[in-house]
Write a structure and sequence with these properties.
With about 325 residues, the chain is of the alpha/beta class. The chain is built from 13 helices and 11 strands. It has one domain: Luciferase-like domain (TIM Barrel). α12 packs across α13. The protein is globular. This is LLM class F420-dependent oxidoreductase.
Amino acid sequence: MVHIGYTMMTEQAGPRELVDHVVRAEEAGFDFSVTSDHYFPWLREQGHSPYAWCVLGAAAQATSRIPLMTYVTCPSVRYHPAVVAQKAATMQLLSQGRFRLGLGSGENLNEHVVGRGWPSAEVRHEMLEEAVGIIRDLFGGGHVSHRGRHFGVDSARLWDLPDEPPPIGIAVSGERSCALAGRLADLVIATEPKRDLLDSFDRHGGKGKPRVGQLPVCYDRDRHAAVRRAHEQFRWFGGGWKVNSELPHPDSFASATQYVRPEDVASSIPCGDDPADFAEAVRPYAEAGFTEIALVQVGGDSQSEFIDWSAKELLPALREALH
């Protein structure tokens, strides 16, 4: 059975609205939720970027059932891994065991703000691997000291630890990140329905572990309005991670996508109100082997309508199609 999740997209809604949305998503019957962790929106039109960890803490108190997860946090530039470990342990306690820590090597868009520069992809993977080791050590209890190539830790300890540490997921986009995830992660995260990513994850130790995908969708009773909104706010999505991870500012994404047409976006993002179209877009993830698929409804002002429609029409249709 494939689980269907809801995305709290911090780039397109304010903090109070995001918490309200996930409360409604829980009531609507979504199986889990994920939260982006950004400092900037991808495009100015999205218009938001509150601090994800405050939103998550509030969401943990406002909900009682739905699992919560970062999708994803970079634990190596904007945040130090020792601080990420503390945040994640606290979230696991607040949520009473409903939190998963999704990690990735990050994007220049968010990490450049601390003025440390933007490392090469190879160095970012080295930093991520070292960061995961530090986080795991701190989850284990006791004092941790570390002198590594990229990070130092001086007698750190987490004083509030859950009985079970949060599972760690690692985002993948190629062979190197799949190898890292297979060795170090409890689950794998991807934004493309590529079977070869999951096969590589399995080869490196990932067999039997959960695999979480994500898909943007744009619900609206007026399909033309949905296509316009998807183009306005999500035309960056098709750039691919090698491009998207390098651009430093929303204006960079605007320039890079200036020739993307609405019909180009509509060819990859289901738009409108036909559940069959949404099911057809989700199906490649299920066929590739993803066990969980988080939907991103494009447009912060359209979340309530999307959640209501999902409860009545979309979720039943998806569960029937993917059973």
